[in-house]
Each structure stands twice: as C-alpha cells, then as structure tokens.
Design a protein that fits this description.
Blueprint lengths: L1 H5 L3 H34 L9 E17 L2 E14 L4 E6 L11 E5 L12 H9 L8 H8 L7 H16 L4 E3 L2 H13 L10 E4 L2 E4 L4 E9 L4 E4 L4 H4 L2 E3 L8 E2 L4 E5 L7 E11 L6 E4 L6 E6 L2 E11 L6 E8 L4 E8 L5 E5 L2 E5 L4 E7 L5 E8 L3 E8 L38 H32 L1
Parallel strand pairs: 7-16
Antiparallel strand pairs: 1-2, 1-4, 1-5, 2-3, 3-15, 4-14, 6-8, 8-12, 9-11, 9-13, 10-12, 13-16, 14-15, 17-18, 18-21, 19-20, 22-23
Helix pairs in contact: 2-8, 3-5, 4-6, 5-6
Length: 468
C-alpha cells in the first residue's frame, strides 16, 4: 500500500491537490460567511430605547456545566460575560437564553424585560434575586461559600459557574448542573433560596420618545427618567440652521437635567415642515437585572455588574403648519409577540399609513397603538412616511423565546432570517459563549470540503484498483 501511494501518477497527485484546493476554498468561503454576516449585522439600524449600548467581548470567568435533555448530555461553559459600553464603561452579564448562539462583537441595547423572554417568564424576578445575592455582586467568596454550605471554599470560576447554572434553571427551565461540586452546591443554594424581585428601572429613558405639533409652539413635554445624578441634553445637530432650541416649560434653554425634568422643542414660527432630534447623555452604573438584547439574534443577557458607564436616550419632534402631524415610536412586546407602533397625531388632518397590507387612519388629536404581529426569530423592517416626505424606519429581530426555532415564510419581513444554530458541545465549545455564530459557518464549510476530499479519494482508490 505504501509503495502504491508513493507511485501515484501525476494525475492522481493533481486530484489530491484539487481536493486540498477545495478544502482551502471552502475554508475561505466559510470565513467570508462569518465576516459577511458580521458586517450585515453591523449595518442594521438599531431601535434604541434608551440606556446603555454595548459590544460583546466574550465569556471571561467561567467553569463547566452539563445540560441533560432528550438528546443526551452536553457539556458547556457557564459563567460571566463582559461587554464594552459605547462612550465608556464595562458590563458583566450572565446568559438568560441558553440554547441560542452568542455572536462575538454583537451590539447589545439595554432593554425592558417585556422586550425579551423575561417578559413572559414568571420566574424572572427570581433571576434578579440570584444576581443580587451572588457573584460578582457578592465578591466576598468566603462569605458566599459559608452561606451556600461550601466547606472547601469557592473560586471565582466556581462562583460564576454556579450562579449561571442557577439562573438557567429559572430563565430557561433547563435541567442543568455544574460539573464542579462546589459550583453545584452554590447553584442549589441559590435556586432554593431565590425570591421574586421586581424589574429594575432603566438607567435612562425619555417619555415619550416622539412628539409633534405646530411651528411656533413648544413641542412636548419630553420627560427624562434616570437613576443618574444628572444628565446632559444635546440639541439637534442642525439647531444653528433651523433655529430649533431645547427649553424648559418657561422657554429657557436647557443643557442639563435631573430625573423627572421636562424639556420641549422650541420650533420657530416660520420653520418649514421638518423634524429634529435631541439626545440625553448621562454617566451612571446600570441597575443589576437590566436585560440586554441584540438585534442580530445573539443570545439575551442580564446585567450582573456595571462600572460607571455612558447611557443615552433620544427623542424626536415632527412639525408642520397644517394637515396631519404625527409622532411615531415603536417597542417590541413579547407578551403579544409583536411590535407596538404608537402614533400620536397633533395635526388638524387625518394621518393614514399601511403596515402588512393593513391600512390605519389616525384622526386629528388621536393616539393609537397598533401591534404588528411577528414570528419568533424573524427580522422586521418597516418604513412609515409622514407628511413632508420624512421617513421613520423600525428594524430588528423579535427574540422572545429561549428555544431555538426555525422561522417559516412570512410577509412581515423583507428578508428571511438565517436559522438559529447551536454547536455539538465539547469541553472547549459552549452554548453560553456559543461558538455557533462564528464557528458554525466554518464547520459547514469544512464539512463540504471533507465531502469533496472523500469523493476525490474514492475516485483515486478506484482508479488505482483498476490499474492494478
């Protein structure tokens, strides 16, 4: 056999080189898929709801756990993630979405529980209790070990793994246990003692996020809600040209605010129909238990710890001299599996728009919320044009369930989503840090390449046997 392989003809060596080339091409294609998907995700228009915006850095402090299900046992990594906040700051988070992949460098937005699977989970409050009573909020590991009855003590890895396992038992109703006995004892203690705790308030929001009215009026009020000691208000970028100012109820310019402050858009009398946006910035520690969701379908996270971080919120104003003058905003609502689009018409004419082949008319002075039904895991991209040709675009992906689903055809999307995938777990691959988003395309490309190599090898062997 060795002699025969040594005597391969040039044609056969060419076939082997062709197979190797196919492998490299497949690997390159897989890499292109990974890069392309990341670029596509980065180009999506996010619907900010106020608060912190962060980028996933990855799993940093973790141990091992085993998931038991009908398919058998899977060993995964379980622990604490870190994210970098836009504008400055760091976040530590745990996963509350076990079977969905995590995408490295995915963008996350602070989100109400109602916009995630926590919104329909009766045990969401117990998850927050675990966060408040375990690592890293309790960083005295000796004291934590004593409470949990762990006589041999806890390492940071044990504490992170045990905390994550306890969270999964409530966030995903998963049959999961920590591999390390100390981490498992901590998980049991946290699960047994968890109590219901209310959802924390947002670090920064504005209400409402959109207002409308006539030129010459004060449009608003927009109320600022924040747990920060103070916040900075940035006027519209083109304020010097349009003359639009941000003021208080007395018409005095506003540059800084505190919690509960009301601000207005002061639009000049002679302003043509248009729109403007203000931004509120603050620096604060984000409350433990706030959810973080990604519009690229990366697994949902829940906050375990925060440094002093930059948080932002925006509000828009529309105005026109006559006719309909609508203000539009939208928020995902997992309790009804849809997108709530709210329209306030402050004009003297009716405002009509279409969504999913349905027409809606908002009368003058009317406020109405229209719920657009969406399917799990499917992207949406809606654009509503208001008088004057201004467009309001709402994009994202509904992510309300923990279980991975395969979405079917739907008229509510412009493009179909990629099926959510999870890897076959090994000691080096985990669902919490899920290599799924970056590794799965690579594995697929390698699989195709190996099939190609197998076919070429079979061809060579058959030719060799025929020659013999």
């Amino acid at each position: 056999m060795l002699a025969s392989l040594t005597d391969l003809s040039a044609h056969r060596r060419g076939a082997v080189r062709l197979a190797a080339s196919a492998l490299m091409s497949a690997l390159a294609a897989a890499t292109t898929v990974v890069t392309g998907s990341g670029q596509a995700a980065a180009q999506e228009t996010a619907r900010g709801q106020g608060g912190a915006t962060a980028t996933m850095d990855g799993l940093k402090t973790y141990g091992s756990a085993v998931i038991h299900d009908e398919a058998g046992d899977q060993e995964v990594s379980a622990g604490l993630f870190e994210m970098s906040v836009e504008g400055g700051g760091m976040l530590q988070t745990y996963c509350v979405d076990l079977l969905n992949p995590t995408q490295k460098d995915a963008k996350y937005q602070e989100t109400p529980w109602s916009g995630t699977s926590l919104g329909t989970n009766k045990d969401a409050g117990r998850v927050r209790w675990i966060l408040q009573n375990s690592y890293p909020q309790v960083n005295d590991l000796t004291a934590l070990a004593k409470k949990a009855g762990v006589r041999s003590g806890l390492t940071e890895e044990d504490a992170a793994a045990g905390t994550q396992v306890a969270i999964w038992r409530y966030s995903d109703q998963a049959d999961v246990e920590a591999v390390d006995p100390e981490a498992e004892r901590l998980a049991d203690y946290l699960e047994k003692n968890a109590r219901d705790v209310a959802e924390p308030t947002a670090s920064l929001t504005v209400d409402p996020p959109a207002v409308s009215g006539r030129p010459g009026e004060l449009l608003g009020p927009v109320t600022v809600h924040t747990d920060a000691g103070g916040a900075t208000v940035t006027p519209p970028a083109d304020a010097a040209t349009t003359g639009v100012r941000i003021v208080d109820g007395d018409g005095a310019p506003v540059t800084t605010v505190t919690d509960g402050a009301e601000v207005y858009f002061d639009v000049p009398d002679d302003a043509a129909a248009g729109t403007a946006e203000l931004t509120v910035h603050a620096s604060t520690t984000v409350p433990v238990g706030r959810a973080f969701a990604s519009e690229s379908r990366s697994q949902t996270q829940i906050l375990a710890g925060s440094s002093e971080s930059t948080v932002t919120a925006t509000a828009t104003a529309n105005w026109a001299e006559q006719g309909a003058v609508p203000a539009l905003s939208a928020v995902e609502n997992c309790t009804v599996d849809g997108l709530d689009v709210t329209t306030v018409n402050e004009g003297d004419g009716a405002f009509t728009f279409e969504l999913l082949d349905s027409e809606y008319t908002i009368a003058p002075g009317e406020t109405r919320t229209v719920t657009v039904p969406l399917r799990e895991d499917q992207p949406y991209d809606f654009t509503i044009t208001v008088p004057g040709g201004l467009e309001h675009r709402f994009t994202g992906v509904l992510d309300c369930q923990n279980q991975t689903t395969t979405a079917g055809d739907s008229t509510q999307t412009l493009t179909e989503p990629s099926p959510a995938t999870t890897d076959v777990a090994t000691p080096d691959v985990n669902l919490a840090d899920t290599g799924g988003s970056e590794v799965t395309p690579l594995i697929g490309g390698m699989a195709l390449a190996l099939v190609a190599i197998g076919g070429v090898t079979l061809f060579v062997i058959r030719r060799k046997n025929t020659d013999a």
